[in-house]
Amino acid sequence: MSENEFIREVNEEYRRDRMAQIWSRYSGVLIGLAVLVVLGVGGWRYWEHAQAQQSEAASLRFEEALRRAKEGTPEDAEKAFAGVAADAPFGYRLLARLRAAAEAGKADPAAGAKAYAAIADDSSIGQSLRDLARLRGALLLVDKDDPGALNALQSLAAPSSAFRHTARETLGLVALKKGDYEGAGRWFDQIAADRETPAGLRQRLEIYVALVAGGPVQVSEATPPAPAAPPPPVLGTTAPETTAPEPAAPETPAPETPAPEATR
Question: What is the mean pLDDT of residues 134-147?
Answer without folding.
Answer: 92
